Amino acid sequence: SFSFLIARCMGLASPEVEILANASLLHDIGKVGLPEAVNFKSGDLSPYEWEMMKRHTTIGASILKGSPSVVLQAAEIIALTHHERWDGSGYPNGLKGEEIPLSGRICALADVFDALTTRRTYKAEVPVEEAIKMVADSGGLLFDPQVVNVFLEHQLDILRIRSANLSRPLLEMQ
Fold first, then answer.
1. Residue-range definition of the domain harbouring residue 78
2. What residues contact residue 84 under an 8 Å CB cut-off, 6+ apart?
3. Number of structural domains in the chain
């Protein structure tokens, strides 16, 4: 996965990389607590629906809270923080910079890149080269500049993962 590659290339210890890679798979688990009409809407979300969608971070953290598993403990942090942004413009808590746990900062970039380059019922996919440029332009704004630099330094590996569809869900709900 993108999170695995970024964490490994940032020099995290092997056990931490494995934990982060497995935990990041659960980053959107809170969406199970949202109405299907919001999760699978083919058009733009209304302001009310958008506020509901933003709750998936806290719902996910609640689902994962209290587990003795180190992977699920890491997943709780990622579920809660993967929409926080480096400049403080994210949600749910408006965390800024290094207030955001590294796992959340890594998953944030990986999640956005995957979302940009994946076709959804409500949007077309963005060409990979354009998505890479968007990520590069967002370093220091939306994303941790160090995470962006690692991502850009390892573009070829990112492209290999993308083309192999290793970051894709096994089943995409329509």
1. 2-164
2. 90, 91, 93, 94, 95, 96, 99, 100, 104, 105, 108
3. 1
**Residue 124 falls inside a structural domain:** yes
CATH number reported for the structural domain that contains residue 60 in this entry: 1.10.3210.10
172 part of a folded domain: no
Whole-prediction pTM: 0.90
d(CA 144, CA 87): 9
User: Whole-angstrom Cα distance, residue 141 to residue 89?
Assistant: 9
* Cα gap 1→116, rounded to integer Å: 15
Are 113 and 161 within 8 A, CB to CB?
no
CA 154, 84, 146, 19 torsion-angle sign: negative
* pLDDT profile of the chain (174 residues), mean per 10: 94 97 98 95 93 98 98 99 98 98 98 91 86 97 98 90 61 42
Q: Using CA atoms in the order 144, 24, 14, 155, what is the torsion angle rounded to 10 degrees?
A: -50
